[in-house]
Design goal:
about 90 residues; alpha+beta; four-stranded antiparallel sheet
Length: about 90
């Protein structure tokens, strides 16, 4: 997923269009302050909020934080799908 790391005057990066991964929309927002870069990934399934991941780093660029959040969000979705698969009753 490509995130535009340029910041607005408020310090917030533009919100990218959600990426879609295994039935889940992943929306990533990143904000850079003079001391740190913070980001969050919100996960939605069927238009229902399913969770949030957040990280911050004093040395990372907004693009680094966004890319790390995207990887973490996809890993979380992979775990959800694996658990769902194993919860199904055997026939």
């Amino acid at each position: 997923m490509t995130i535009d790391p340029t910041t607005h005057s408020s310090g917030a990066s533009p919100s990218p269009s959600p990426s879609h991964y295994r039935g889940v929309d992943i929306r990533i927002d990143v904000e850079r302050t003079p001391d740190c870069t913070f980001g969050r990934a919100d996960l939605f399934e069927d238009a229902e909020f399913r969770g949030r991941l957040s990280i911050g780093s004093p040395r990372a660029t907004p693009e680094d934080v966004a890319n790390r959040l995207a990887r973490l969000a996809r890993a979380k979705v992979d775990i959800w799908r694996s658990v769902q698969r194993h919860r199904r009753p055997a026939h």
